[in-house]
Write a structure and sequence with these properties.
The protein is mostly helical and 294 residues long. It is 67% helix and 2% strand. It has a two-stranded parallel sheet.
Length: 294
Amino acid sequence: MNDDKILHCCLQYQKKFPSSQLCLMTRDINLRNKAVIMGIDATNDNDLWSYLDNSSTVRKTGNVNLTNPLRETVSANMFVKEGTIPDEFIEKRNTSSTEKLNKQRRNERNRGVAEAITKILTGFPSSSNSGSKADSEVIRQQQVHTTEEASTVFSKFESVWKFVFNIKNQLNQILSSGKAEDEFDEAVKTLKTMSFLVSDLCCIYNSCLTVSPVILHNHPSQFEKLCSALNSFVTLSGVVNTDLNSPVRLDPMMAYFKETKNRILLMSGLEQMKNFSSEFLDMMNTLTSTRHVV
């Protein structure tokens, strides 16, 4: 049997029983070298027992690198001549290029899986983006609407507070300067009205602030009173005022009180209104003591 047939038989055996351990034992060094180049373990009868005792499946003999035979530098007569290489050896020799191709295919497949997972984690495909964009637009419009309503509530508070402040200063100047009797009497009348309105607004305002934001929706009647008091404040005062704001509604008012970030500002407004009420009361007491009020 020539060398090619022996190697062919070894390759057929390895192909049929891939999990088995095959070792070619021969004293022909050229045959051993050919077998090593083809990926077949080979040894001679002198080294057989050393091969079996070794825990590894390959033993290094001479200058031939059995652990990685394809990287070993060998002489030209150790290669099999062209045309005598069996198909199995050609398949074996091309294993590295095949593995490289398989690795590329695996990488492409893994890349596809990774892209699919990324799409799942980041959201739906572009076909469903229209719905999410529409939802985002609705949410944005709701936020803008809420901001506008909060601005309306704040503007109403600011308008009433400024109105009270200006009237207080005007009344103080008139009552302390002793002007004409008609103007003085009108100022006294306005003082009485303002004192009552501010005191009433203070009580309603304070009752709304004592309601916890958590249960605020259970007390709409209190906030209805506050809206009514603010909307009618300037009209009931009897003072002509061209700077009128749009009336404030119940829902925006309750939403404004529910926001915890507004609580500090609301409490500051209450303290300011209490100061106004106290100053109007002092002015009334001063008029009474000087007998200007009949």
